[in-house]
Design brief:
This protein has one helix and eight strands; from the N terminus they run αββββββββ. The protein is mostly beta strands and 136 residues long. It is elongated, with a radius of gyration of 24 Å.
Amino acid sequence: MKRFANLILAVLILLFAAVPVYAAENESIQPRYTYIASFTASMLVHSNTGISTCTGFVKVNPGYKAKVVCRLQKQVDSAWETVKTWEGTGDGYANVSEKWAVYSYYNYRVYVTAYVYDSDGNIVETAANVDYADYV
């Protein structure tokens, strides 16, 4: 009988040890990068003036070079059309923050692409981030 009880206890321990663990519902899923430490995209439009500020920022691990490309895009039917493009490069980080006038009857977004280069100039990682116009 003692042997049977030990067997049941062992089976129960194995069953409960294999219970999957789930993330909390309010946690957002964040992409994992190899060489990118931080990556953001932001677009603000001033309602009174129609001037947008498009921002892209990428910080990379030490020893790597960064490039960020910001594309201001407007929605035409169901497609996104690029209106203006800006680029920034640097050692360790790259950023762009530019202004452009937009029309109120279009939907806008900023589409930001980040590139990470090693010391030989090879691209070792790319990533994309999008932010839709926030009217202030």
